[in-house]
Amino acid sequence: MSTEIESEGPAIEVDKEAPSLLGKGAHGGVRDAMAAYLRRVRGGDMGPLPAVGGLVVLVVIFASANPLFLTERNIANLFTQAAPLVTLGMALVFVLLLGEIDLSAGVTFGVAMGVFVKLTQPGGMPWPLAVLVALGIGFVVGASIGFFVARIGVPSFVVSLGLFLGLQGVMLVIIGAGGTYRLIPAPIKAIQNRNLPPWAGWLMLGLILAVLLGVALVDRQRRAASGAPNPPVSIMAAKLGVIAVLGAGLVFYLNQNRGTAARTLEGIPIVVPVVLVILMIGTYVLDRTRFGRYIYAIGGNAEAARRAGVNVPLIKWSAFVVCSMLAVVAGFFFISRVGSADASTGREIVLSGVAAAVVGGVSLFGGRGRLVHAVIGATVIAVITNGLGLLGFSAGANLAVSGGVLVLAATVDALARKRSGAIGV
Amino acid sequence: MSQPIVELRGVTKSFGPVEVLKGVDLTAEAGRVTALVGDNGAGKSTLIKGLAGVQPYDGGEVLFAGEAVSLHHPREAARLGIEVVYQDLALCDNLDIVQNMFLGREEMATGTFDEGRMEAEAARALQTLSVKTVKSLRQKVASLSGGQRQTVAIARSVVKQAKVVILDEPTAALGVAQTAQVLDLVRRLADSGVAVIIISHNLQDVFAVADDINVLYLGTMTARIQAKDTSPDDVVGYITGTKTMTEVQA
User: Fold this and answer.
1) Cα–Cα dist B114/B232, whole Å
2) Domain A71-194+269-417 in this protein, CATH class
3) Domains (ranges, CATH) in chain B?
4) Would you call B140 and A290 a contact, using CB atoms and an 8 Å cutoff?
5) What is the pTM of this model?
6) pLDDT tens figures, A110-162
7) Cβ–Cβ under 8 Å, residues A381 and A406
8) Do B40 and B155 form a contact (C-beta atoms < 8 A)?
9) Interface touch A45/B140, C-beta < 8 Å
């Protein structure tokens, strides 16, 4: 049937003896798909598997060590703790995929937040305008890093390290040493401190499942129209089923009253749907648009991408802009939780953001990883922070453990890369 | 002879004070394999990069199907149907076969990738080239052998119905069996009506597959001759500059 496809150029005779490759491997039957997946994992392309395993182990350990860990209140707390890190991790994925790094992402949001809280002090400008200013700061920082890296060719490590130091200076000037500004606008405070009503939690889950199902069905229909076979329905159903079950469990759990007898506290923190929307849009961009595909291509082989006609400097520049602006969004989640901004806002979080992405299975060498990996990795790190805190460990122990996890994850990444080079999967 | 699909007239290219191409002529015809040979530094790669639009020529004319064209960007070359398969393959290891074959010219439908269509076209291209060793179209290129990668790289040009395919040292890194396979594929490509330009150091391969042989020596085309009218010894002479040929129009 493949001979029926119209061709504009010279007609090429199709060798009837050669089997068509359509419908083999991951898009074949359930067994083919499983085999293809196993082959990939054995080849070192484990994706988030180690992180998911680690997450399960950590949860079991912390839950058995301290009964407070699995209480509704702590789980809700965990989500709001993790949100800035998750978002920062997702921001960094865009540049990590290129094989670049942005060490200034944390202080970028620090500066943006410093400006934001100062602008929105009583008598200042309306907060939506200040939000735009903060995002504008993200754009300017990202654009300048992108300019130096993509146009001039300065290593991103050096450029962003320079900005990491320089922007801290800017922050001292804006806020003043030792100064702290309180966050005033209620809508920004609400992101991390208010919850969805229980019905809205279910609505959110329903909408997410509907979108995922809709996209999958459109895909299937389109593939069928092109004459490409579809993967078995059972795989799609299984994926959606897992999301539905986990999601339902979580919504149910967080909809329980976790407040006191005097004051009810229930529902999903508002930040959760916001992060999920960012995740879904970002995943769409990375998986289904030229911009996303070219980011992967540049991370894999920049010269090949250039020869294929990709505007490498433009894509790189845009990735840095996306990273810095998403980092500013992470900043909003951060100050919403903390309630104020000072001169050190965002200074410490950036390496945790890199760690989140790498722990989740995003390669530091570029070209490999997904946004959801950063989410999983950030959750692991948040669980460590939260769990060690509950067990009464000091901040020092927490830093040491998080650092160790980062090195471990980077080691796994390097080994996986070596292995995939050696056996070629 | 019929009108050549690609004709270069007196193209020049310099890098600073170094003149790499000193007015080179080259023609390639549909259905024929044109070999481009020459020693290291003769300017073969520079000539090819100009045709691919990666590194534009400084001077001279490029005629495509008889009309003057400008080649300043890989997209312009691709639009004309000129495809280059590079020596270092220019594939992205972290992408799968389909993604690599469509890199830079993805099929879109309502703003997103039309993966099904790309997959179907990729399958057809590989079937055309009798590729039997690949397990899945969604395999990452990192998992392929040298010969398979070369096949994917060549299939990249077939998938868009290229009119001119330029192969830069397609057999340099391959074993004996794979070399035979790739040369077979090159022949099949030309027989299907594509103009193939092949660059090679290996004269055995050149004589096995080429119809016309062009020899580049220090930036000038010193010989243009049909393969059946010459011998490997003569060609070696042209390459090293110990023999010259004045009769240029074949």
Assistant:
1) 48
2) mainly alpha
3) 6-90+163-240 (3.40.50.300)
4) no
5) 0.85
6) 999 999 999 998 888 899 999 999 999 999 999 999 999 999 999 999 999 99
7) no
8) no
9) yes
